[in-house]
Specification:
The protein is mainly alpha-helical and 86 residues long. It is globular and about 35 Å long. 17% of the residues are buried.
């Protein structure tokens, strides 16, 4: 498992900043708990998720919708499951 450098951690947190407070709270809590164990593949998947618009991302995080298309991967589903459990 590849560990993130401090710069990569800072970049991930910066990309995680959202326009909706609800998203910020969920993602920040997730990163506070799991950031030190994230792999490069996890960062790639999170970066992909962070490209979603805020409302669609919130729907995923609150289980009002499920990942579809390019977002329906085992790793993205695992990360969303962890965020939902927070």
């Amino acid at each position: 498992m590849d560990k993130l450098t401090e710069l990569e951690r800072a970049r991930l947190r910066w990309r995680a900043r959202r326009g909706l407070l609800e998203n910020d709270l969920i993602i920040t809590k997730f990163l506070d708990r799991y950031e030190s164990s994230l792999t490069n593949e996890d960062v790639k998947s999170l970066t992909q998720l962070f490209e979603m618009d805020d409302n669609n991302l919130l729907d995923l995080l609150l289980a009002r919708s499920e990942p579809e298309g390019d977002y329906d991967t085992p790793n993205i589903n695992r990360l969303i499951g962890l965020m939902r459990a927070e």
